[in-house]
Write a structure and sequence with these properties.
It contains 18 helices and 16 strands. The chain has 506 residues and is α/β, with parallel strands linked by helices. The protein has a domain at 333-483: Isoleucyl-tRNA Synthetase, Domain 1 (Orthogonal Bundle). Strands 3-2-1-12-13-7 form a six-stranded parallel beta sheet, with helices on both faces. Strand 14 (287-289) and strand 15 form a beta hairpin. It is elongated. The structure holds 5'-O-[(L-methionyl)-sulphamoyl]adenosine. The site of 5'-O-[(L-methionyl)-sulphamoyl]adenosine has 19 residues, from strand 1, helix 1, helix 7 and strand 12.
Length: 506
């Protein structure tokens, strides 16, 4: 069984989950579910990033200990994920002992390899971004080039990681492994950043205490990004637990804002520790609301629980991955969501399911007949054969919107096929062989649709399959190689009665 390891970023606990956090997690879940259908042994990791000055300050403002703030936010995440059918294998918290031990082990290994030294750090620090900047990187008014807020001057004793030693090895690696960073535009950005010169990285702080202490020099706290990135190893029980079979990660899904940490710092740390690099890092785009970045200060961050009041989790999952190509930015609006729902889910998929099962009930008592070969069906059959191949290609490149488009296109063909073959006429004129053939193809097409939609809308797909198979089917236990192709139903099978899955929204 192939091992497949997929991760989301671990989310900061100084903020409640919002649409942006939901996006990465849903995308990772879709991929995890798809790989399980491929027969892979999947480890899907998500969790929270609890340390750092930002969390310490947010907790102080609320009169809480950092761990109390973290506990409260963790609970929100843990309540949210089931509502969105997130099927993670593990949820890591960086305050857990299993994590802290791994961070310190990794530190000691880097130290032994000579990749860490002590020096004096003098630079500009942006607290909200937890990022250090050189004078030349600052904006003209001396503000942070990412968030445009004021930065602080810092000068302190610090440990450094010899990042500059890995500039050429990393460039070579990126050029030899074209799939490593995606999409291509982001890969190019990373390359030019590296080519502009990598400076050694300050990796400890003495200005706050909420973090993992440097082994043997406890007044220093390990830089939050080393702490955070190590979660991908600590969840596997690094260095020697059985789950290390899952390393290197198949894919780290991240937002574009944190690509540099994943595509530059992390691979260099891994190289220094003598560990293989992740196979892929994919950076997705950002959701805006009314064209504006979501933020606490604007008060426009969309809360998952508010959205879930109006929309089922499956529908939100579908929309997030259908509306915007993964990798691009997108603007969120409920009117766009409603439009997609009504046209693609209610009108196309829901309608095809309903009319096909109704006709099968009406004309054949719900019982499937035999297929008799007919040249009128060649085109439809070709589409049914093509869809799984297109979905596979799209999923390999994390092009979720293309996978959904391939499924939708087959459904549109199905609806056209109903019009062209007019089963009501065939029934009236007693063309039973032809009627059996047409109804079989339609039900088979719907079965395929349910299979391939199931990573995106696990509950809707299961409900769809339950109507087709007349019994509950645990879709995640199926294998696409065995069941994910045309002609898998047997004549004589009795389908269930239709129940509307996607009622129109007015
Ligand atoms: N804690 C770090 C990640 C450490 S990973 C070793 C972090 N946390 S975060 O909570 O601020 O962000 C987590 C993810 O949410 C990032 O991938 C970020 O891109 C994503 N999003 C936050 N807002 C977003 C949108 N508005 N739209 C899409 N995703 C965005 O960074």
């Amino acid at each position: 069984m192939a091992k497949y390891y997929i991760t989301t970023p671990i989310y900061y606990v100084n903020d409640h989950p919002h649409l942006g956090h939901m996006y990465t997690t849903v995308a990772a879940d879709v991929l995890a579910r798809y790989q399980r259908l491929q027969g892979d042994d999947v480890f899907f990791l998500t969790g929270v990033d609890e340390h750092g000055q930002k969390v310490q300050e947010a907790a102080e403002k609320k009169g809480l200990k950092p761990i109390e703030l973290a506990d409260a936010v963790v609970e929100r995440y843990q309540q949210l994920w089931p509502k969105l059918s997130i099927s993670h294998t593990d949820f890591i918290r960086t305050s857990e002992d299993r994590h802290k031990q791994v961070v310190q082990t990794l530190w000691k290994q880097l130290e032994q390899k000579g990749a860490i030294y002590k020096g004096v750090y003098e630079d500009w620090y942006c607290v909200p971004c937890e990022t250090y900047w050189t004078q030349t990187q600052l904006e003209e008014n001396d503000c942070c080039p990412d968030c445009h807020r004021a930065v602080q001057k810092v000068k302190e004793e610090s440990y450094f990681f010899r990042l500059s030693d890995y500039q050429q090895p990393l460039l070579d690696y990126i050029n030899e492994n074209l799939d490593f960073i995606a999409p291509v535009s982001r890969r190019n950005e990373v390359i030019s950043f590296i080519e502009s010169g990598l400076r050694d990285l300050s990796i400890s702080r003495t200005t706050f205490s909420w973090g993992v202490p440097v082994p043997g020099d406890e007044k220093h706290v390990i830089y939050v990004w080393i702490d955070a990135l190590s979660n991908y190893l600590s969840a596997l029980g690094y260095p020697d637990a059985d789950n290390m079979d899952f390393w290197p990660a198949s894919v780290h899904l991240v937002g574009k804002d944190i690509l540099r940490f994943h595509a530059i710092y992390w691979p260099c740390i891994l190289m220094a520790a003598g560990l293989p690099l992740p196979k892929r890092v994919f950076a997705h785009g950002w959701w805006t609301v009314d064209g504006k970045k979501m933020s606490k200060s604007l008060g426009n961050a969309l809360q998952p629980d508010d959205l879930l009041k109006n929309w089922e989790g499956d529908v939100l999952r579908y929309f997030l991955l259908r509306e915007v190509p993964f990798g691009s930015d997108g603007d969120f609006s409920e009117s766009a969501l409603k439009m997609r729902y009504n046209s693609e889910l209610a009108n196309d998929i829901g309608n095809l399911l309903n009319r096909s099962l109704s006709m099968l009930q009406k004309y054949k008592g719900g019982i499937l007949g035999k297929v008799t070969s007919h040249e009128l069906d060649v085109e439809l059959c070709q589409h049914m054969d093509k869809m799984p191949v297109s979905v596979q290609q799209a999923m390999q490149g994390q092009a979720f919107h293309q996978a959904l488009e391939a499924i939708n296109s087959l459904v549109r063909h199905g609806n056209r096929y109903v019009e062209q073959s007019a089963p009501w006429k065939l029934a009236k004129e007693d063309h039973i062989e032809r009627l059996d053939t047409v109804l079989y193809h339609l039900i088979d097409l719907l079965r395929l649709t349910a299979f391939y939609l199931s990573p995106f809308m696990p509950n809707k797909a299961e409900a769809m399959m339950a109507q087709i198979m007349n019994t509950h089917v645990e879709l995640q236990t199926f294998n696409l190689a065995e069941h994910g192709h045309r002609g898998n139903l047997t004549a004589g099978h009795e389908c269930g009665k239709p129940h509307p899955l996607f009622p129109r929204m007015i």
